[in-house]
Write a structure and sequence with these properties.
Layout: H1 12-55, E1 59-61, E2 65-68, E3 78-85, E4 92-93, E5 98-103, E6 108-114, E7 134-141, E8 152-153, E9 158-164, E10 174-180, E11 187-192, E12 200-203
Length: 204
Amino acid sequence: MKNLYSEDAFTGLEAAIVLIAFVVVAAVFSYVVLGAGFFTTQTAQATVHTGVAQASSSLEVVGNVMGLAVGTTAHLTYINTSVALTAGGTPMDLSQMVISYSDTKGGRNASINMTPSGCGSILTAAVTNDNDIQWCVSQKINDLNPNNNNNLLEPNEIWVLSIGMPSTASINERITVNLQPAVGAVLPLTRSIPGAINKVQAIY
């Protein structure tokens, strides 16, 4: 019987179809590989940019943290801490900063309110409600824009923050105040109140 199947029937049209199929598959595979590569590159760039922003937006404490007691020596009324940008830091809006307080006696305040204008009662009297403690910028040293009443801490400036203390900030107490900028690392201030409270004292 004559063989009805022959390799001679494999025409040029069929070969072209197979070639086109291989090209299409290769193109799709290349697109997928390139897309994954672009996505990985973009993710790496975003990570680098975020890291640079975090590293260049950090606060540091300048000098001692001072504890002040107004009208009482049973506990601190407020603390003063001077802050500045780290070397090469970018300007930071301190009005966006969140300040929290905690101590070993169970005193906690997850978000101390900022006084928008002036320090008011923070510097003059103890609070009657521990949940109402506030903080403010009591002094701006080397202010680059003294005529502009803004909250932008810029390089070479030193700002003094006055942070109200609750009644639990008493003798032999270990307190922690966390300064959390909108962008950047948290700056924790952990200090121990001495066994006797004076009107003004450095706390370490």
